[in-house]
Amino acid sequence: MKKYLYIIVISFLFLSCKNEKKANDKFNVVTTTSMITDLVKNIGGEHINLQGLMGSGVDPHLYKASEGDVSKLANADIIFYNGLHLEGKLVEVFEKMHSQKTKTIAISDALDEKTLIGSEYFASNYDPHIWFNVEYWMLATHFIVNKLSEAVPEQKATFEANGANYIKQLEALKAKLIATIETLPEEKRILVTAHDAFNYFGKSFNFEVVGLQGLSTATEAGVQDVQKLSAFIIEKNVKAIFIESSVPKRTIEALQAAVNSKGHHVTIGGSLYSDALGNAGTAEGTYIGMFQYNVKTIVNALK
To answer: Which of 107, 171, 208, 213 could form a disulfide with 195 if both were Cys (CB 3.0 to 4.6 A apart)?
Structure first.
């Protein structure tokens, strides 16, 4: 009941704000996660008016739109979101807006579903954490270039040039990540985190990935989950486990305590960025900087 009431309230606010929309010289673009905001910024640059809904440390799985967010959405010419039910509480809002002729675009539509990792935790039946595959992010770059070019054809050349430049940066990023990971022996490539946000990373870079809470932070880890994973850590002689910037650290601390109580020492190797980038204005506040930081933190802690 609360879910449907939320949708009704948001829809009412959306229609109210829509009537107040004012003309703007620049094309208004709204994005959901900080990863998508960074990507669109690299393509659109100064030629669009870009507003992101979710900042550093914000969990998209649990995010609810505020009245201020609804105003941004109502005044958007185009909205880019992740899709695959990552933004769980916003999905129906976007569907409602789409039916009212607002252009809402899921960047996951750029990908072939056959290549995605399956998941029983999401209504889409797929793992939505697609940004941890650099190749996918390149496809998303091409996709957004095309969508912005269709919407603002007079800036097509600029968007294409910006997109091509960013693709080169992503190619360089992937090469750096591979070089760093190759310094870590394969048998030590076991990544244990708060929730399963890193499966695409694991598939891309040959890591075994285990998350305590499953794919969505909306699920809670129970005592049996902690005991089962602690036994796995001891069996595999895992040196370090990791907390996440957008997930409370108490579950990983409980896991560490469970492992240590059994005579096996495991450290917390650091905090990783999973569902959100770092603070704006820092290296980790960009997709490229976030990825470099994560891999460096993982490799250094597991060596």
So the answer is: 213
